[in-house]
Amino acid sequence: MTSIKYSVLDLATVVEGHTIADSFSGSVANAQQAESLGYTRYWFAEHHNMINVASSATSLLIGHIAGHTSTIRVGSGGIMLPNHSPLVVAEQFGTLETLYPGRIDLGLGRAPGTDQTTAFAIRGENMNSAFHFPRDVEALQYYFAGDHPNGVNAIPGEGLDIPIWILGSSLDSARLAAEKGLPYAFASHFAPTYFLQAIDLYRKTFKPSLHLQEPYVLACVNVVAADTDDEANYLATSLQRLFKGIITGRRQLLPPPVESMDGIWSPYEREAAMQMLTYSFIGSKATIANELNAFIKNTGINELMATSHIYSQDAKLKSYRLLAEAMNT
């Protein structure tokens, strides 16, 4: 696995008994360690109105982490473009790239990153903006190229080489990434259903572009690593409880782990959560190394991105250390 890049997706998860400020401090510590361990990039995802996710002001967090690191790439996984004006996104990321040259990624998604009521609070009368996603991606590219047909310039932003990624969990996102010749990041950490179909479609229909000559697939997965399989499975109950809240609509702060999930979730909730968590790698370094090696060989991905919802900050840092060691075996 030494030939494949490995990266981090962070949602600035808010942990039970801790504050949002603690989450941001934890992200800085995690990013600094990731940089020292050879991780390629550190991304934040835009979500809104979620009690356990503090990455709503995504571009601000990107700047915060970039300012506390030196070499690791920092970016969005992703910015939900229909929530924003393409010009404003171009200016924000143009500012970030100007401050931290050669280190900023712009991953773009179509979904609102929230419920429909909150989406309306964000988008107002533009609730159908998701239908314009391909057009808005083009608008961003025009702004960065300094060649937008409306004659408006993104300052800063114009003339900067900021990599654009298409994020998704469906065949539509795969088609768009392939059509535009852009790298493709799949949200397999919570939406695994179309993963294999989507990356196959992307590769088969990919059109080389000025940005990318060959298909490039990044897969995001859940990782919980510890000294032993038993300890990792124990730590992973926090992740399982988090997904139970997603399924039931009763979200909660990331809870501490428990000895057993028996009595905490119903058979239906367990089945639904485990389906969403299909691409989760939980265990000792040896276990996740073996399982990830098989996953990488079977899918042919170019890059692995890990997200780790672990209650203890120390255990979380250790999990990412063990993952880096596994990726370098």
Automatic annotation (TrEMBL):
Keywords noted in UniProt: Oxidoreductase
CDD domains: Flavin_utilizing_monoxygenases
InterPro entries: Bact_Lucif_Oxidored, CmoO-like, Luciferase-like_dom, Luciferase-like_sf
Domain of life, source organism: Bacteria
EC id: 1.-.-.-
SUPFAM superfamilies (alphabetical): Bacterial luciferase-like (SSF51679)
GO MF terms, alphabetically ordered: oxidoreductase activity
Family, similarity comment: To bacterial alkanal monooxygenase alpha and beta chains.
Protein name listed in UniProt: LLM class flavin-dependent oxidoreductase
Protein's organism: Mucilaginibacter angelicae
Taxonomic lineage: Bacteria, Pseudomonadati, Bacteroidota, Sphingobacteriia, Sphingobacteriales
